[in-house]
Amino acid sequence: MRSWVCVKSRTKLTGRVIFKGDPGYAEARKNWDPHTDRFPKVFVFAQCAKDVSNAIKWARENKVPLRPRSGRHALENNLSQVNGGIVIDVSDMKRIALNKKSGTVVVETGNSVGRIVKSLARQGYIAPFGDSPSVGIGGITLGGGIGPVQRTTGLMSDNLLELEMVDAKGRVIHAGKKRNADLLWASKGGGGGNFGVYTKYKFKVMRAPATVTVFRIVWPWSQFEKVLKVWQRWAPSVNSKLGSELSIGPKVGGNVTMLGLYLGSKDEALRLLAPIIKVGTPTQKTVRLLSYTKALNFLLAPDPVLTQRFSNQFSSGFGRRPFNNKAIKAMREFLEKAEGNTTAGFFFLNWGGAVSRISPTSTAFYWRDAKFYVEWNSSWIKPSHAARNISLVRQTRRKLQPYIVGSYINVPDQGIKNSGPVYYGKNYARLRKVKAKYDPNNVFRNPQSIPPA
User: Model pTM greater than 0.90?
Assistant: First the structure.
């Protein structure tokens, strides 16, 4: 590690700086995808906003591309790494400050979702979370931030009140309702890596219930069609205090699992769950009343980012009506071809409640009017299997296109052409105007970033 001054540069890199060839470079390169094939010139692990500012200025002076990085969860590795460029990694910035009087929390952008929600839970507060504790709060919030409590709390981004961001000139900018409100609007679902490098967020939080009910129901894979047909009608209309995720694995080695929680009693949860529990022949039925902190441990199983063996290709969309037999046939074809005993499969999340009470244009996150969210991914271990699996995911998207709208920017698919309206719907034109204001020279860009108007 070293601070280093390029002969061309007036600006000195600060923070924890690792150049190609330095000790620690191989570790710094590791990403969620174990087969990442990008080799940045330098990694800057920022300790504060000033380090971010210096890194941006250095990149511009040296005319090298840059990428922000937080939790290393980018599902497409060239969105958070770049050959010959600089990666500005904010994962060392981990302060959390809860203000119980105002019901708000200020968090630095290097925190993982799990670290924040568990810290708040110990103090009696609830904040939205997704299906992974190791995802960085920055990336997930900026893309919207979906998860099992969203029908009560809204999306993560719906709870964002203020933010701090370093812009393309290295200036520290603050945004809230009264200043730079357009940037706050764009940051509520407009995706990371578009407008600047974010360093701090202020969220509203709510008191956590003392106890909640969690559940995990498992069925044999052969019953997935029967379960899905009931789930996709039951889940969007059930009490909004109940969040439900349905995962369907590949035919070889997979099963059907429903995981979720109800912010209420076990008796009431059992009553609400009855229509889905009686479907088929579940092989496991777990319904437990737990303290809120223990419920988080149940729902957020550890998922080490840098030790996984699989590469993945994802795609996603939003369902406005239940999948019919033709759509389910396309799912079956995918699940029969996906490699067994990997992380491949389909994932559904019920929608509605607080998410759908906000209009599609009130924030940058457009896809409010849905019944459920759906994503699918194919996984592989051998790099030689990549092309086949990527093709399988993208063929499946074409087959499902009549039954879904949009796509979730936090689950990017670079096979989507002209992706802006697909990710952002009718908000895309306004997002391009915000981009033109805060990054007119398109310094923050990647293969699917928002171009300036």
Answer: yes
Q: What is the pLDDT of residue 78?
A: 66
Pairing of strands 311-319, 160-166: unpaired
List residues bridging with 318 in a β-sheet.
373, 405
What is the C-alpha separation between 294 and 308, in angstroms, rounded?
25
Distance of CA 208 to CAs 103, 212, 290, Å? 12, 9, 12
Find out whether 351 and 405 touch, Cβ atoms under 8 Å. no
Encode pLDDT of 105-150 as tens digits: 999 999 999 999 999 999 999 999 988 888 999 889 999 999 999 9
Q: What is the DSSP string of 67-136?
A: EEESSS--SSGGGT--TTSEEEE-TT---EEEETTTTEEEEETT-BHHHHHHHHHHTTEE----S-TTSB
Residue pair 175/184 in contact (Cβ under 8 Å)? The answer is yes
Query: Would strands 42-45 and 86-89 be described as parallel, antiparallel, or unpaired?
Result: parallel
- Model confidence at 77, pLDDT cuts 50, 70, 90, reads low
Placement of tokens 């990336």 in the chain:
139
**In contact, 126 and 212? CB cutoff 8 Å:** no
Q: Phi, psi (5° rounding) for residue 425?
A: 55, -140
CB 320 within 8 A of CB 370: yes
Specify which residues 127 forms β-bridges with: none
Q: Which amino acid does the sequence have at 442?
A: N
How are beta strands 125-126 and 211-220 bridged, if at all? unpaired
d(CA 319, CA 385) in angstroms, rounded, equals 30
Query: End-to-end alpha-carbon separation of the chain, Å?
Result: 39
Buried b (16+ CB within 10 A) or exposed e, 200-218: bbbbebeebbebbbbbbbe
Say which amino acid occupies 247. Answer: S
